Amino acid sequence: xxxxxxxxxxxxxxxxxxxxxxxxxxxxxxxxxxxxxxxxxxxxxxxxxxxxxxxxxxxxxxxxxxxxxxxxxxxxxxxxxxxxxxxxxxxxxxxxxxxxxxxxxxxxxxxxxxxxxxxxxxxxxxxxxxxxxxxxxxxxxxxxxxxxxxxxxxxxxxxxxxxxxxxxxxxxxxxxxxxxxxxxxxxxxxxxxxxxxxxxxxxxxxxxxxxxxxxxxxxxxxxxxxxxxxxxxxxxxxxxxxxxxxxxxxxxxxxxxxxxxxxxxxxxxxxxxxxxxxxxxxxxxxxxxxxxxxxxxxxxxxxxxxxxxxxxxxxxxxxxxxxxx
Length: 325
What we know:
Elements (H helix, E strand, L loop, with lengths): L3 E4 L10 H5 L14 H5 L2 E10 L2 E10 L3 E9 L8 E5 L4 E4 L1 H11 L5 H14 L7 E7 L4 E9 L6 E8 L2 E3 L2 E3 L3 E8 L5 E9 L7 E9 L2 E8 L4 E2 L5 E2 L9 E6 L2 E3 L6 E7 L5 E7 L11 E6 L2 E4 L4 E2 L1 H4 L2
Antiparallel strand pairs: 1-2, 2-3, 3-4, 4-8, 5-7, 5-10, 6-9, 7-8, 9-12, 10-11, 13-14, 13-24, 14-15, 15-21, 16-17, 18-19, 18-22, 20-21, 22-23
């Protein structure tokens, strides 16, 4: 059965508390999610698209996005819904990708010499390899606050601009063995708001299990923290150009935050670390944690602990221009 499509304008007048209802589990306190409404809404885009197929209506309510971490909220209605109160969702026939129109416009700029036919062929191949559901997670659950079945989808989306047009295709969703056939397809735009706090400086640290580092940049959003650094001393290199150091830079990790005077740990189960060295022994890299289990106000973060050593943010300079966008 073909899906019936009803579209509402993205960005209609905000309803008080809507983002803390849609993303209540990301609120700083799940018992009082409305207290995090402003922080969630600061990353939010209202979408309001609805599709109905085979007696099931799926509404794509909105999104929160900090420029990397994306979360979508969907509501479901219908007699054929799975009765599971909480379940992960399998997506073998579903995908999330940049919209065809936005991707084609970008490719036309990058490859102006291509004919329309060549561009369409390349576009088909590009979109086929750019579908994001390999790294997407999703949960289906019953929300007692709204007395409705809902679904949340999380992914990582990057952009060089201030918005991203995406297409979400949902088909044959497997919820604990029950299948939501669909298909349901939404093309929508998420907006990137000024939610980032960016600090620059040159603060020397001696983290455990690492050579000394000089922190040069810190980026904080309500969902993620990233720290960039260079090595304070050049590494000794062996005959093959491989570094010989007293520590392992890949072992660097953000372990805790100090927020409004309180130490916060366990705020994210995901972390990453990358580094590289030059032929002269210079080296540097970055560490990050996120997405956070619950939102954290970037302006309230006072310090970051890296391998047992605290980086005090008042030793760095807040960049107003970078933080504004």
